[in-house]
Amino acid sequence: MNGVLVVAELKGQEVRGASREAVSAARGVAASLGGPVHVAICGGPGVGAIAAGLGEQGASVVRALESPELGSYHGSAYAASLADMIRDHGYEVVILSATAQGRDLAPRLAARLQVPLMTDGTGLDVSGGDLVVTRPVYAGKALARVRSEGSPALVSLRPNAFPISDAQADPSVEVTSPEAHAEWARYRTGAFEASAGAAVDVSEASIIVSGGRGMKGPEHWGVLEDLRDALAGSGGSVALGASRAVVDAGWRPHGEQVGQTGKTVAPKLYFALGISGAIQHLAGMKTAQVIVAVNKDADAPIFGVADYGIVGDVFEVVPALASEIRALTGA
C-alpha cells in the first residue's frame, strides 16, 4: 500500500479548514488499508512550509510542488503537475475537497489519470480492500454508496461533512519544481478580489443566523443583523445566511446562500428564521450541531430537523431572543 494522498489548498497564507477535514478523514482510510497519509500542495516558493501544519491532523509527508508560476491557482498547471506526481508514487487513493477550487481541479485530474471521480463524499470506509464513498443523491433524500473501478480511487469530499481531529505528526517536507507544460501559458490569473459583505464566511462560521422568505423583504434583515450582533458576544464567529428563494429574489448576496446550490455548513448553532425547510435547504445545513427554527407554520418541514422549534412570528420572536441573549452575555 503506497498510502493515501490528500491534495490540500490554501486560503491566503493558511491551510483551508476543508483540507484539514480531508486529512482527518484520510487517516481512517489509511489505517484500514495499512498505509500512511501524505499531502500534496501546489503553490509558490514556501508553500510546503505552510502545508507542514497538516502534521497536526496526521500527515506524515508533505509533497510540495513549488514554482513561481503556481503561486496562483491554475487548473491545467495544477492538474498536470499533480498527475505526474501521483503516477510516480503510485498512490491508491487520492482525496480532494469539493471547494470551488477542488470542483474545478478534481475533474481535470480525473481526466489526466483516466479514472472515475467520486464527488461530494460525506462518508468514507473500506470494504474488501476498496474505498467506498457515501454521497447524497436526490437533493439529500437518499445516500448512495459508490466504489471506483479505477486506480487510484479519486474522490472529492463535501466541506464541513467531516470533523477535524488531531493526531500530532512531524511531517517531512519534500519540495520539487515541476516541469512547465506548454499549456501553462494559455491563461494567467491577474488578481484575486475579496468579495464584499460579511467578514465571516458562512461556511466557516460557528454560529449562523439564516433567513428565508418569511422575512418578507430585504428591508427587514436588520432584525437578523441585530440577533447576529447579540450572538457575537458569545465568543463564536457569527455569519448571516439565506435560503435560495431569498438569494434568487435579490434580497441577499449569493455568498450567503445555504443549501444544495449554495454552501454546505456545519456550525455549532444554526438559526433558521422564516425558512420553511425545503429539501434543498436542508441538504446544506442539517449537519449543524444544534438547529433552532422559528416559523409561523407549525407543519413546516424545518421543524422535522430542528432541535428547538418556536411556532411564531419572527418579527416578535427574534427581537425578544436577541434581547435575552444580550442580557445573558452582557453584550
Structure description:
- The protein has helices at 17-33, 47-51, 75-89, 100-113, 222-231, 244-248, 279-285, 314-329; strands spanning 4-7, 10-11, 14-15, 37-43, 61-66, 93-97, 117-121, 123-127, 130-137, 142-147, 153-157, 172-176, 207-211, 238-242, 269-273, 290-295, 308-311.
- It contains eight helices and 17 strands.
- It is elongated and about 65 Å long.
- The mean pLDDT is 90.
- Helices cover 27% and strands 26% of the residues.
- α5 links the parallel β13 and β14 (238-242).
- The strands form four sheets. It has a seven-stranded parallel beta sheet with strand order 7-11-6-1-4-5-12, with helices on both faces. It has a five-stranded parallel beta sheet with strand order 14-13-15-16-17.
Q: Any key phrases for this structure?
A:
Rossmann fold, five-stranded parallel β-sheet, about 325 residues, 2 domains, elongated, 8 helices, 17 strands
